[in-house]
């Protein structure tokens, strides 16, 4: 597991390092890209980090032009997050690198192994995280 994680995150880490970013920035960019208009509070729940940590990450992403923050239309207290074109390009670059690794591994392992792997991954997370994943996957795209 360690070696797979190291190699899976290695290429994106290099790209992020060139931007003076880390994995927390990557996770934020990924989930904002997957769910444009996600609220800061929803992102906090998904990332399971402190408000202070997320604030640092979002401030840097907004300052560097990767993320936009808008006020909610129905609830003015809401802060909704969107990737800029620059943020979308970075998210695509990072995700495509990791997607290629998954595609190669899935091809080599075969369909039965992929289904088993997905069951193993699901088994590694807590029930509350499973519920969160299910609710996130059920949201309209």
From TrEMBL:
Protein name: Transcriptional regulator
Pfam families per record: MarR_2
PANTHER family on file: TRANSCRIPTIONAL REGULATOR, MARR FAMILY, TRANSCRIPTIONAL REGULATORY PROTEIN
Keyword Acyltransferase found: yes
Biological-process GO terms, alphabetical: response to stress
Listed GO MF terms: acyltransferase activity; DNA-binding transcription factor activity
Domain HTH marR-type intervals: 1-126
Recorded coiled-coil stretches: none
Keywords on record: Acyltransferase, Transferase
Assigned EC number: 2.3.1.-
